[in-house]
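[worker-b] picked up task from shared queue
[worker-b] task type: protein-ligand structure
[worker-b] ligand name resolved to pyridoxal-5'-phosphate; SMILES cross-checked against name lookup, match
[worker-b] sequence length check passed
[worker-b] input payload:
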Amino acid sequence: MTLAMKKNNRRAFLGTMTAGVAASCLGPLRDAQGAFHEALDALPTDMDFADASELYSLGEGVTYFNHASIGTMPRVVQAARRTYLDLCETNPWLYMWGPAWGEKVEETRRVVAEFIGSTPQELAIVHNTTEAFNTLASGLPLGPGDEVLFSSMNHAGASVCWNHHAPQRGFTVRRFEFPIERADRMTADEIVARYLEQIKPETRMLVIPHIDNMVGLRYPVKQLAAAARRLGVQYIAVDGAQSIGMIPVDVNDLGVDFYATSAHKWLQSPKGLGLLHVKKEIQDEVRAMWVTWGQGRWGGTARVYEDYGTRNRAELLTLEDCVRFQMKLGLEARQSHFKALHRHLHQRVEETKGLAWRSPQTWEDGCSLVAIEVEGHASGDVFDHLYEQHGFVFRAFGGDLNTMRISLNVMNTTDEIDRFVQLIKDEILA
Ligand SMILES: Cc1ncc(COP(=O)(O)O)c(C=O)c1O
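[worker-b] inference finished, payload out:
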């Protein structure tokens, strides 16, 4: 056999092997996804949310009111994730580097992008909101004479990165006090006005939460972004850690440049998955934070912001399943349930002497994350008691706020709320 023939044979063999291997790689993945879809199909179309806790695996004795800190995966998504992880271990090289799963990642990106009103070219799948903001703070062309502006309602994950880069790069950072004590009665116009009065000629970058993490105020992002641009603000970035998966979001319609979120909260994904939307027109202006070989091939897409070498493809694939699960429950139905829980909790708080509501009055102005004060009691002590004695999990905010942050998702019920309020009445306020 000549050398040329040997080479041709080898190429032919590799060709068959690749095709064979790709098929053997896709087969089990299709089976796994088939099993996921079967499990979804088996769920009732008109879900009674009173039974929704069966869809999750929260522990016996745990009443989980802390979805704003970290979400919990639905059982069907947990099963899909396990299958992908197990599959990956049967031939790690194939699944981590082979083309078949690479294509599935792109399918996942497409589904998730559509869900939030982004496009596959504009969406990076990152680890979380904090990483997304680090990318912006390190990569935007900001320098002397430029100001980054945000309010005291910003989460540290969307804030500290700017302070970190400012001294070296020469831009300034200004944080203004937002009247959080007015959150229970603030109109959209007032929110916009509070931001606009802070914008100066040097303000080039504005960072706003879509929903803040303390009182759950919903910011009129579209209105604010348009008004800020009229005053000359060039870049507008939104922290959507508390919104994607909780309220409907169409990032393109908002008219902002950047939108970041952590999928492990309201989208109930595996921990350590997030999204960064970067508007196509300005991708050239944002340098990637992670740099590695071969990154040039992602030019013209936001994928350049997520490429840091080897990553856990198996977990990433479950993002699509998280979206499909939410759609199966029905976006309208979920929202009706959220609103009903909000109304119920609000009513119970209003009728209970010693409890004070510190969030917007309606779900539409606020959301599924609310702040309640137990007057005369430190929120940390209230948490210690209710968690240790009764298994209630929520976040306690100390200091001036002194509130319990209650964040409710589909598996929560009005019975849980009643029990919670009754325990506070009997064991704390009595
Ligand atoms: C509004 C907001 N932004 C950012 C973050 C940071 O999220 P992560 O740690 O997932 O980056 C949080 C976390 O609670 C948050 O509530």
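[worker-b] attaching auto-annotations
[worker-b] The chain has two domains: 110-326, 331-429.
[worker-b] releasing lock
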